[in-house]
Amino acid sequence: MFLYFGIKLIYDSRSMSDRVSEELEEVEEELLKSNKKSEAQSADDEEIGSADSKMTSSNSKSESSIFFQSFILTFLAEWGDRSQIATIALAASKDPLGVTIGGCFGHSLCTGMAVIGGRILASKISEKTVSFWGGVTFLAFGVHALIFDV
Question: What is the domain range of residue 27?
């Protein structure tokens, strides 16, 4: 799997532009336009209310889609991970409620740092660079696994 993902990421990076995240720039531009439009139309409350309800409806669809994608990705990535096995062992020998709360807090903190780090990374480094070096890293892990029979 490491070799497959490494080759795929390097292959995908070849077709990407060498710009800082285009999606991030587009979202920031849309938010800026939306804020300017709201400020310009603040005199007409009824018009703002209908625009906000339309925007809220489309934003909630987008947010739920992002929520489910994040949930499924995290759930599948963590399923069967060593940390899950350690959590099971800890819950078997200690208070399950404390293990649950501590596990949720620890995972939330770790994921939050990844989200913030990803946001910073996306604003500084192009997606092409991240994909290429991610592919190289996956290939290195794949070769290591083949040589050392992990």
Answer: 21-79
